[in-house]
Structures are given as C-alpha cells and as structure tokens.
Write a structure and sequence with these properties.
This protein has 175 residues and is mainly α. The protein has five helices and no strands.
Length: 175
C-alpha cells in the first residue's frame, strides 16, 4: 500500500507512473512499427516514438521542477496494455486484420495516457504548479492528436480488413 498524504504526493506518484509507462512504450513502439504493414500506420508509430522521447523529457522536467528524483513507479496498467500490444503483433492472419489489431491496442494505450495526463494536469492546476501543468497539457494534446490520427488510419485499415472478410477462406493470406 502506498502512503499518499497530500495532493502533491499524489501528483508526484502520477507523474512517476506516467514516466514508467512512457519508458515502456519506447520499447514497444518500434516493435509495433515493424509489425505494421500499412505505410501510414508504420509511419504513425515511428512518429509517436519520437514524440514519446519528448514526453519522457517533459516528465523528467516536471519531476525536477517538483524537487523530486527522476524515476518511475511501476505502472501495471501499461504493462498489461503493452502485453495486449504484443498479442496484436503476434496475430496470425491477413496483414490488414493484424494492422486493425495493432490500432486497437495503440488506441487503448492512448486513452490510458490521456486519462493519466489529464488527471495529473488537474492535480498540478489545483496545486498552482503552472509550469508542471503546462508540460502535462502539451503532452495531453499530442496524445489526443495521436489518437485522432489512429482513428483516421483505422478507416482505411478496417476497409482493407473488411475486404478480407469477404474472401473465401481458402484465398485469405496469412502474414
């Protein structure tokens, strides 16, 4: 059980959780990019990897600004989400179906991150930690944009996957 006696302690705990989560994502995104076959999805994962490096830097800056050591706290939710992403990577079947699974896994990550950043930003605002709130808000905007980009790509990927559904089973290609 964690002792969180103040809202400030809770804010620090949330940021450390996000720091751990983003660092784990740095390892998962290249694998997702490699597994993706849709060029826009592949590029989207690569672009988000570059953004995630910035997110880690912002979280480190936030922790430093709060006078805390820059270290993470195990984020069990992100570990589970990354495991789901690994399952999507290992989907056997047509490429479009695997790409659709990758998008689903990635969007679950984005929604989790948006919730975490929004919560931490609200704590920072309540504590009048405006510089920390600005850092968190900048990342929250980028996470939302990534989610929207994934949604846009999903229209094409899902249409491609639907075509596969309409083929006779013997003609569907795996991997």
């Amino acid at each position: 059980m964690s002792l969180l006696p103040t809202l400030r302690a809770l804010l620090i705990d949330e940021i450390r959780d996000l720091y751990f989560a983003e660092n784990k994502l740095l390892k998962a995104l290249p694998k997702m990019a490699k597994a993706a076959t849709n060029p826009k999805l592949k590029e989207g994962f690569r672009h988000h990897l570059a953004q995630t490096l910035t997110h880690v830097d912002r979280l480190a800056e936030a922790l430093t600004s709060l006078g805390c050591p820059v270290k993470g706290k195990t984020c069990h939710a992100m570990l589970g989400l990354i495991e789901e992403g690994a399952e999507a990577i290992d989907v056997e079947g047509p490429a479009a179906v695997r790409d659709a699974a990758l998008i689903g896994a990635a969007q679950r990550v984005e929604h989790y991150e948006m919730a975490g950043y929004g919560t931490a930003r609200a704590f920072a605002q309540a504590l009048k930690e405006s510089s920390v709130a600005r850092l968190l808000q900048a990342t929250l905007i980028e996470e939302g944009a990534t989610n929207q980009a994934l949604t846009k790509i999903s229209f094409v990927v899902n249409a491609d996957a639907l075509v596969v559904d309409e083929l006779p089973p013997a003609t569907r290609k795996s991997r």
